[in-house]
Amino acid sequence: MNLKDRGNKKWTAMMLIEHRKRLKELKKSEKDREKPILDDQEKAAINFKLQQAVQKKLPVEIKYYEDKRFKITSGVIKKVNLNRKEVIISEKTDEQQKISINNLLDLRLK
Known about the structure:
Elements: H1 17-30, H2 40-56, E1 59-66, E2 69-81, E3 86-90, E4 96-100, E5 104-109
Antiparallel strand pairs: 1-2, 1-5, 2-3, 3-4
Organism: Halanaerobium kushneri
Pfam family, one: YolD
InterPro entries: YolD
């Protein structure tokens, strides 16, 4: 006998709409992460790698925090705007992305 468990799907017919909404919210919030606090050494290391990447136009992989999630992007850094505190990175698709300097978590030179 082959029984396939469908998880919450089998129970949704008996649930109220409010319960279904709350289950969706719970699943969404499980993926939420808190922004880690970087110490001075980590910030200095990111700053050093950032300067090298800009001067030598090296491709980088950046891990950053946005919308309660950790995200990763890669490309070449076009500009660092210190007035707006943001990094402008050009991705492989020739699209430019702006990332706040305060949200940088890790930077790897390729």
